[in-house]
Prior knowledge:
By secondary structure, the protein is an alpha+beta fold. The chain has three helices and seven strands, in the order E-E-H-E-H-H-E-E-E-E. Strands 1, 2, 3, 4, 5, 6 and 7 form a seven-stranded mixed sheet that branches. Helix 1 (49-70) crosses helix 2 (92-99) and helix 1 runs parallel beside helix 3 (104-111).
Amino acid sequence: MSADIRKIAVWVEETHREMGKEISPPTRKAVAVAVIANPFAGRYEEDLSALIDIGAELGALLGEKCVAALGILPEDAQSYGKAAMVGENGELEHAAAILHPKMGAPLRKAVEKGAALVPSSKKRGGPGQVLDVPLGHKDAAYVRSHFDGVEVQINDAPRANEILVAVAVTDSGRPLPRVGGLTHENAEGKDGLR
């Protein structure tokens, strides 16, 4: 792997009760985070291909870790998202290079299919700052029950010359969804929308 990884963290959030109602089975979100060295920290670089390649590696690694943490088959994943936070010596374009050109294809392979765009966010921040990872249905963007998000936070990352990269995968939508629209069960996943 070309990424200089300092730390990886993985966790699963389960919601068993919401507004006094039991959620059965519980809704579950897995998040995998890598804290990596930013090879371009502190300087302008025209060619960001090294970060683009790192994005592809992390899409596979973090996506597979999320699926494994949930204990599901890749095809049982329902939604996904990605996010990156650059430390103070980085620029937002460093996060964009990791997230956009090549991360999606290996992440889609990790969750099998993934016809819809992968929701993403990027920001600059420091150690302990919260990063929001947006979530959306992996095959049909119009499935409203899967519009969601999850927060990640690492107490010592990102340091000034680092990037915190996160991938989230779920095996369900929000607890108690009731705003209508296309359902997971009725999604076709042919065009990424429906």
